[in-house]
Amino acid sequence: MKIEVTELIRKALEARNSAYVPYSGYQVGAALLTEDKKIYCGCNVENASYGATNCAERTAFFKAVSEGERKFKAIAIAGGLKGKPITDYAWPCGICRQVMQEFCGPDFQIIVVKSEDDYKVMSLAELLPHGFGGESIT
Ligand code: THU
After folding, report:
1. Whose CA is nearest to atom 6 of ligand 1?
2. Contact 60, 108 (CB under 8 A)
3. Ligand 1 centroid to residue 55 C-alpha, Å
4. Hey, which of 77, 93, 96 would you mutate to test ligand 1's pocket, going by the most ligand atoms within 8 Å of its Cβ?
5. What is the largest CA-CA distance in the chain?
6. How confident is the prediction for the chain on average, in pLDDT?
């Protein structure tokens, strides 16, 4: 698992470089690990109509789901202002947590990253307790 974590972190940091952030300058990269060990990366993609912006985590999820993936183990997320060192952990926003809830179980691992050696791992259950899911409406 340690090797997987390091690789996910590297890929999240790399994906950050593709962030399209002309409005906030806040670059986010994400790397999503499937249960069969494939990795899908994503970055945030902003829009002049701000609400049309897509977060890095959702970019990664939607890429994976649109390729047929449905089972996920972990996601690494790295965010910070362009051209500056990463100073804080990039916690996923509420909408991204809800998208995780749609496709992941309570043990899904969320790795927030400052660097390869400085990160935190938390479960979806910790970041979204009592989440709302499809089982309530089907
Ligand atoms: N952002 C993400 O990519 N992920 C999050 O979980 C929080 C916010 C992006 C959206 C926007 O491009 C920028 O960060 C500032 O909100």
Report:
1. 92
2. no
3. 5
4. 93
5. 46
6. 97
